[in-house]
Write a structure and sequence with these properties.
The complex is a heterodimer of chains A (about 425) and B (about 500).
Chain A: H1 20-25, H2 30-35, H3 40-50, H4 62-67, E1 77-82, H5 91-98, H6 100-114, E2 118-123, H7 128-143, E3 159-164, H8 174-181, E4 205-209, H9 210-214, H10 216-228, E5 238-245, E6 251-256, H11 261-268, E7 278-282, E8 291-292, H12 293-298, H13 303-308, E9 317-322, H14 327-341, H15 347-364, H16 370-383, H17 391-405, H18 407-412
Helix pairs in contact in A: 3-6, 3-10, 5-6, 5-7, 14-15, 14-17, 15-16, 16-17
Chain B: E1 2-6, E2 9-13, H1 19-25, E3 49-52, E4 59-60, E5 71-73, H2 77-92, H3 108-116, E6 135-136, E7 141-143, H4 153-162, E8 167-170, E9 177-180, H5 193-197, E10 203-205, E11 218-223, E12 232-238, E13 241-247, H6 260-263, H7 267-270, E14 277-279, E15 282-284, H8 286-299, E16 303-307, H9 313-326, E17 331-334, H10 356-361, H11 368-373, E18 378-382, H12 386-389, H13 394-397, E19 401-406, H14 411-415, E20 418-421, E21 430-433, E22 439-442, H15 455-465, H16 475-485
Parallel strand pairs in B: 1-5, 16-17, 16-18, 18-19, 19-20
Antiparallel strand pairs in B: 1-2, 3-4, 3-5, 6-7, 7-10, 8-9, 11-12, 12-13, 14-15, 21-22
Helix pairs in contact in B: 2-3, 8-15, 9-15, 9-16
Classes of the chains: A alpha/beta (about 425), B alpha/beta (about 500).
Chain lengths: ~425, ~500
Amino acid sequence: MIAETILLKARMGNTDSHTLASARAAGAYRASAKTLAAAPEEIVQLVKDSGLRGRGGAGFPTGLKWTFLPKNRDATYLCVNADESEPGTFKDRLILEEDPHLLIEGIVIACRAIRCAHAYLYIRGEFCLPHERIRAAADEAYAAGLLGPNAGGPGQAIDLTIHRGAGAYICGEETALLNSIEGKKGQPRMKPPFPTNVGLFGKPTVINNVETLANLPFIVEKGPDAYRAIGTEKSPGTRLMSVSGHVERPGVYEVAHGVPMRGLIEDLAGGVRGGRKLKALIPGGSSTPVLTAEEAYAVNVDFESVQAAGSMLGSGGCIVMDETTDMVWALDKLAHFYAHESCGQCTPCREGSGWIAEIVRKIATGKGTRADLEKLESLAAQIVGNTICVFSDALAMPVVSHVTKFRAEFEAHLADRASSSSAAP
Amino acid sequence: MAKFTLNGVEREVPDGINLIEAALLSKVRIPHYCYHPGLSPEGNCRMCVVEIEGIPKLQTACTTLVADGMVVETESEKVIQERTEVMEFLLRNHPIDCPICDQAGECGLQKYYMEHGLHDSRVAVEEKILKRKRVDLGPLVVLDSERCILCSRCVRFCDEVAGVRELVLANRGGRSEITTFPGRTLENPYSGNVVDICPVGALTSKDFRFKVRVWFLKTADSICPGCERGCNIYLEQYQNEVQRIRPRANPDVNRWWICDDGRLDYKWINRDRLLRAEGEAGTHPPERADEEAARMLKEASSVLLVASPRSSNENLFALKRFRDAALPRAALVGGSFRKPWEEDRILKRPDRNPNRKGMELLGLSGDLEGALRTGPECVLVVENDLLGDRPELADLLRGKKLIALASNRDATAEAAALRIPVCTYAETEGSWTNFEGRTQAFRPVLKAVGESRPVFRVLEGIARALEASLAWSDFETLRAETFQAAPALGGLARTSGGGAHAL
């Protein structure tokens, strides 16, 4: 039996956990107060020592990212990525709704560390309650002087602007997010230059995920060693895993990195619904390669273990599919999502995403042929790695993994399937 | 300078240029659609990918600056395969309606499909996404959205060159479309350029489309006569009529652009031309016309010759020599009252005469009105529509014997006692000197219309009838003499560029 390791969820669960009074009573803003006496470099070092890795999907070391900022700079921006849109992922939403002050405290600490006087929080347009909560929390923090002209110490401002998106998945891509804040069309930018050099309004900018920043108060208050004591060597700390799909108790579970995936599914999420068997599991949000039941039960919840199994822990969006799932149908849902969300900038992604979705639909509805299946695989290979951002990879990975790992199911859907397998209903 | 290796050969190119430009300097062409040297690079079409040693992924040449020691492959198997795949994607939703498309013959899709196409299509026609056809974007431009490859050149042109936000890429993914902003039209004074830079048949010119297949066009390097900027252009003709004008790149003058007024400033070449010499007694064959002019000039007690800032340097010089050789007592002044227009910050200059500077440098300015007031009996007007440009001059011209050397039936020609047809700039060699003192040559694209002759040949003929010695064996001799006599013209300017932007 595994249990949750509570680090970020500590104050959640009460009906007023989102208020400043409640959060403060439970220790909020103690860590950020501590940083007021610390030099920015010390905070950066602390975070580097903690081994904190980004929770948005790529798992990039947070402290290291901060050090990419140029030494001499006249302004720095922090952008908080709260555009949580990856299908299967809903853990930032929990923080925003239940403990927004944990995030604001993390923002204050990060601003102190990178000498940022103005942070932007980009929140997904469909997040109504989370937006209401974070805005109310920001108002409270301003009123209490935790944000505002002297929030970073006398005369040192830390301002927070909350920017609502308009419902585009791509705006969660960090450079599209910058364009969107600037009032431009939400399309990814060419890299280099990287945002740490040329970011928001052309200034050096750090973009961090909500959950990443929510880890900072603990690291500052308890120290890097206490943080490293949780989780694995390469994936310190805990992880908010969003478990959805065919489980008895879907929800957000906080586990120490390194716990078995089986434990997360069976002990915490109550197991596959109705006592059925697991068929497949997407471990880190819709764009990560799907795992078979066998693979899923063999991995642990940490970056390195899932990677070794050929997938990614990504944003921790764990989608569970039981034995009744039609994997062609499942891919159809994903493919149509990506075709709908491609920004349309780069040729391979714009044309490829729609084409792939069409072929999957054709196969799913029994009209596909062997040639279509081959085309599907070759198109997935064609769109990988030749676009400005990684969106096309995010579509290709599920396509390739679904078709490769569940090939028999795809073949059974074909109109020109071999007659021996025509017994399929 | 940067030393880099291109397809196995070491090259040296200036620093700070991208790989497309660096390769071009080495005569290696990297296929591309969205990149244009006059616009910021976007890297969206993915056609220009190249292999760079040490970087696992293919890189877009348009957004990669050349660097010392870089090893670049533009024709490797991986690159060719990627291009082929991009071509397949670009044509996935393209209507392939080349037989009715005006771009056919100069289309980037056709061009690269022949080099990198799959030839066995994997696309079913009924699966293509249907989009808007015949979208009226503005006075000059029509959009066919299905043909569009969404390279965004036109959007960037409006934003970056014309300086107006008129076009936008709306919607997402496969439903992306070029459109005007709500309530706006594509009507900036440079809008026609989007047709030139559109690499496919999505944006077509209302003025040119359906007129003629581009492969029937004959093209000559020319100069825009519209103002004193002297934008470099291509004049293109079919059946001895000019069909369209396109900009010719010259980084020192007009970069890759021309204004819409210049683009449409050709219709007069095909219209209302003076085909034969006409006098009060009817039409004359050329030789008779010259004799008639000579008689009028000889009989007059005083003669005024009027030069034009629209004439070529060579014709202006010929007129000077004509005066010296045949009519040494005649007065010679230059002038035009073609009303100035509003200049802009892009190309348009206020003075609408292409050779004001050349006329001045040849010493042909002067007080035209004053000269007319002295009451010359006979006035020879060369390539100058005095009455059309300034109708109030009619009073000063009244009662004077008027001879017009004119290409068109303009007001001055109509009022003249003798009108002799001359060639337009589209039919002759010549040069104009722009406001910066840059002397630029134009080449003929048409055969002389009717019985029109170059101005200097008409002047030769009149001189002959006046028994004066004035003859040039060919145009080049005249040009050499002109530049020798007027070193201030500086000879023909060398340009650091030239040509259109080839894909």
